[in-house]
Design brief:
By secondary structure, the protein is mostly helical. The chain has a domain of about 70 residues. Helix content is about 55%, strand content about 0%. It has 21 helices and two strands. A two-stranded antiparallel sheet has the order 1-2. A hairpin with a 5-residue loop joins strand 1 and strand 2. The termini are far apart. This is mTERF protein.
């Protein structure tokens, strides 16, 4: 009964083929095989041929039977002869796409084989090229993300191009951005335009708007952006500064509950509410650190090193540095220097952590000639310990070397103190 039903459904679709077909491509693009319609054998050994489009995907683009049928059932591919898909392949080939490029594109967007290339594709290529993108630019971009070709040129691509071009400045940069982010902007165009205009009216500088477009597009898809803008301005940020954009990312992407939890963590380590707000105003990326990372840095700084937690209000970037690869090695050197009385008492504890690698070595290792050999050995040992721990798959705290103020995610591993075995932060045996 089920076999008859399957057969009748295919008859209704009108796409049953009974003859094998050989595809003909030009000399520049040819497949090493002929297309042959495969068959599905029922339990009663009845042979039922597959739709032509399904066989085409399987034999020419290495689709599995399941994925080819899925594309067919979703009506992504609808053709009974090779004429239309062949014309699509020839179009891409004539525009500089290689055999492997076309395979990748069709795997991602099989619906292209059912499109009419000179009506659906050519106008978009002409638009990209007329606005400064070359074929050498377009080929890798579309191979990576062909979904822009599904968008309407007049209703989506051109209006969005005109909207974004003001902030991304060059036509070519805007085209590249559109192609790479085509799937991100599924939000209605009127909402994107309204939110961008809202930020402009609020006084947010063009450079901040551009950075947010590149790194935090979701902000422009919000239905309550005005609240976040007002919250950030209420904290004392000037909308015309780049810091306003960083603070906006933080406040918009973080719930009030999580914000309050992070404030409470800082207070637990001796900061006041005023300290948190003051440091956030100076370095809004402070609140991008996770609660675990805040506790890790504070625990090391206060419990392991015995240093004043209020020193970190002067060096908020500390919460964005790698604990094993930056903070621990440099703190070990500074601890020795302080113990030997080689460093001025009023010198900033936090500043050496912000130095580049070469500057830190020159100022905090090689400048102490009599102790430089020992300091360099100490520093190298801590760096090797961090690398060995990471390479052996032991728990470690991973974090970007510096805060990227335009991202909300800081990658972290497990708590070293609670997760590692046998050694504490300074590598001493417990």
């Amino acid at each position: 009964m089920s076999n008859k039903l399957f057969f009748s459904q295919n008859l209704v679709l009108g796409v049953i083929t009974t003859k094998s077909t050989t595809l003909k491509f030009n000399n520049h693009f040819s497949f090493p095989f002929s297309l042959k319609c495969s068959s599905i054998t029922t339990s009663q050994s009845e042979s039922i041929t597959q739709p032509f489009a399904v066989s085409y995907l399987i034999n020419n683009f290495d689709f599995s039977t399941e994925s080819a049928l899925k594309a067919f059932n979703l009506r992504q591919v609808r053709f009974n002869t090779p004429d239309n898909p062949d014309s699509v392949i020839n179009f891409f080939q004539n525009h500089g796409f290689s055999h492997s490029d076309i395979r990748i594109i069709i795997k991602k967007a099989p619906w292209l084989l059912s499109s009419q290339p000179h009506k659906r594709l050519l106008p978009k290529f002409q638009f990209f090229i007329s606005n400064g993108a070359s074929l050498s630019d377009i080929v890798p971009l579309l191979t990576a993300n062909p979904h822009i070709l599904q968008s309407s040129l007049d209703k989506r691509i051109i209006p969005l191009f005109q909207l974004l071009n003001r902030f991304l400045k060059t036509n070519k940069d805007t085209i590249v951005y559109l192609i790479l982010n085509s799937r991100s902007f599924i939000t209605p165009l009127h909402l994107l335009e309204a939110n961008i205009n809202l930020m402009v009216d609020f006084g947010v500088c063009d450079s901040a708007i551009a950075r947010l477009l590149r790194t935090r597009k979701s902000i422009y898809c919000s239905n309550d952006l005005i609240k976040s803008l007002e919250d950030v301005k209420g904290l004392g940020f000037d909308p015309s500064t780049a810091a306003f954009g960083t603070a906006l990312v933080t406040k918009h992407c973080m719930s009030n509950i999580l914000w309050d939890k992070k404030v409470d963590v800082f207070k637990k380590w001796g900061w006041s509410d005023e300290d948190v707000i003051r440091v956030f105003r100076c370095q809004p990326s402070l609140m991008l650190a996770s609660i675990d990372k805040i506790n890790l840095v504070m625990s090391f700084w206060v419990n392991q090193m015995g240093w004043d937690p209020l020193e970190l209000t002067k060096s908020p970037l500390m919460f964005g540095y790698s604990l094993p690869k930056r903070i621990i090695p440099r703190a070990s050197v500074l601890q020795f220097i302080l113990m030997k009385g080689l460093r001025k008492k009023n010198a900033s504890l936090g500043r050496p952590f912000s130095y580049s690698e070469n500057m830190f070595l020159n100022k905090c290792v090689f400048s102490f000639k009599e102790e430089s050999d020992y300091l360099l050995k100490l520093y190298d040992e801590k760096m090797k310990l961090a690398n060995t721990t990471e390479n052996n798959g032991m728990p470690s705290t991973k974090c970007s070397l510096y805060f990227n103020p335009w991202t909300i995610v800081i990658e972290e591993g497990e708590d070293m103190e609670s997760g590692s075995k046998g050694k504490n932060f300074l590598g001493k045996t417990r």
